[in-house]
């Protein structure tokens, strides 16, 4: 029997990308909503409760409203918004972190998909803290380079418009008040005792992300050289098809890490660079892939009990 799937918010960037990934699947039945009823609560409620799984690709307030419409106790919700990522009773949709995370997704009725910046940050910080290498009170800072698609339809239109502001030709740092909406999950999921100093940067390319974490090795609870830390990450993520730990950085073009190299790919790569005193751990992925719709579909695959990579690009 095919699983009935509804995408609430199917016209947004994430919703459209999820829809694209269903094009060749024969194991799901997609429930669709007519354009003139996309914001009609009664029609949305009907489709949510007819579905086996509903994806929420909505702003936070609308996502909370959608959850309140659920009456069928068998409906599973996969929410791509920020609304429920640290909420009690919601599974955090990053299965590679531990078997506990994967089981919570598999058995959960409510699943929150990680934020894009948070995905890169947590992929590197969570293992270091959970395995006692980095202290939870380390004063972490992180930088994130992203393509403009992460800003949604409004930002995409701004960047792709014929008459655009000249500032868009250059990378731009934002969230200058240190109040980025992903900070809450970045702290909570990793177990940090303080919020990180976080500097996200948007640049003039469509999609792709690079999140970098600088570390002074003398602050580590368990000292590691770059090579040793690379092996640590490789062992932590051993057998995970969505995460690749790169051991040979000599193949990088120009000896540099680019934000857009993995655009269109649904996995994530981890690099450890630097020297014995100062390290940089970087996560490279597509903000629309492992950072959004790809992660959402991976979670759905876990719920359905099929190959986690089904319908995805690896």
Structure, explained:
The chain is an alpha/beta fold and 314 residues long. Helix content is 31%, strand content 21%. The strands form 2 sheets. Strands 8-9-7-10-13-12-11 form a 7-stranded mixed β-sheet. The protein has a 6-stranded parallel β-sheet with strand order 2-1-3-4-6-5, with helices on both faces. A hairpin with a 3-residue loop joins strand 12 and strand 13. The chain is globular, with a radius of gyration of 19 Å. The protein starts with a strand and ends in a 10-residue tail after the last helix.
In N-to-C order, the SSE pattern is EHEHEHEEHEHEHEHEEHEEEH
**Distance from first to last alpha carbon:** 27 Å
What's the count of strands?
13
Helix content: 25-40%
Radius of gyration: 19 Å
**Largest sheet, strands/sense/barrel:** 7 strands, mixed
How much strand?
15-25%
What's the shape? globular
- The average pLDDT is 96
Stretches where pLDDT is under 50 for at least 5 consecutive residues are none
Structural classification: alpha/beta
By DSSP (H or I, 4+ residues per run), the number of helices equals: 9
Sheet with the most strands: spatial strand order? 8-9-7-10-13-12-11
Which structural traits does this protein have?
9 helices; 314 residues; 7-stranded mixed β-sheet
In short:
This protein is an alpha/beta fold. Helix content is about 30%, strand content about 20%. It contains nine helices and 13 strands.
Per-chain topology:
Layout: E1 3-8, H1 13-21, E2 28-31, H2 41-50, E3 53-56, H3 60-68, E4 76-79, E5 91-92, H4 99-107, E6 110-112, H5 116-130, E7 141-147, H6 152-160, E8 172-173, H7 183-190, E9 197-203, E10 209-216, H8 226-236, E11 243-245, E12 268-274, E13 278-285, H9 289-304
Parallel strand pairs: 1-2, 1-3, 3-4, 4-6, 5-6, 7-9, 11-12
Antiparallel strand pairs: 7-10, 8-9, 10-13, 12-13
Helix pairs in contact: 1-9, 4-9, 5-7
């Amino acid at each position: 029997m095919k699983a009935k799937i509804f995408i609430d918010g199917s016209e947004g960037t994430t919703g459209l990308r999820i829809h694209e990934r269903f094009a060749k699947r024969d194991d799901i039945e997609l429930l669709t909503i007519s354009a003139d009823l996309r914001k009609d609560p009664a029609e949305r409620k009907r489709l949510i409760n007819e579905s086996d799984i509903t994806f929420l690709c909505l702003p936070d307030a609308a996502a909370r409203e959608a959850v309140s419409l659920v009456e069928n106790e068998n409906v599973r919700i996969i929410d791509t918004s920020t609304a429920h990522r640290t909420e009690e009773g919601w599974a955090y949709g990053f299965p590679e972190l531990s078997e506990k995370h994967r089981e919570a997704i598999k058995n959960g009725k409510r699943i929150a998909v990680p934020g894009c910046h948070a995905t890169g940050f947590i992929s590197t910080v969570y293992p270091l803290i959970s395995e006692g290498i980095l202290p939870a009170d380390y004063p972490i800072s992180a930088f994130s380079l992203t393509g403009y698609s992460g800003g949604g339809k409004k930002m995409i239109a701004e960047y792709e418009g014929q008459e655009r502001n000249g500032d868009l030709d250059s990378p731009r740092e934002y969230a200058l008040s240190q109040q980025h909406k992903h900070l809450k999950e970045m702290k909570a999921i990793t177990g940090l005792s303080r919020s990180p100093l976080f500097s996200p940067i948007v640049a003039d390319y469509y999609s792709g992300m690079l999140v970098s974490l600088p570390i002074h090795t003398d602050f580590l609870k368990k000292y590691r050289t770059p090579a040793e830390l690379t092996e640590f990450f490789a062992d932590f993520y051993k057998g995970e098809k969505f995460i690749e730990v790169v051991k040979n950085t000599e193949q990088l073009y120009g000896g540099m890490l680019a934000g857009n190299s993995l655009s269109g790919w649904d996995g994530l790569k981890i690099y450890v660079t630097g020297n014995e005193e100062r390290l940089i751990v970087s996560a490279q992925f597509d903000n629309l892939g492992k950072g959004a719709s790809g992660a959402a579909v991976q979670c759905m695959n876990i719920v359905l009990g099929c190959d986690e990579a089904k319908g995805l690009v690896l």
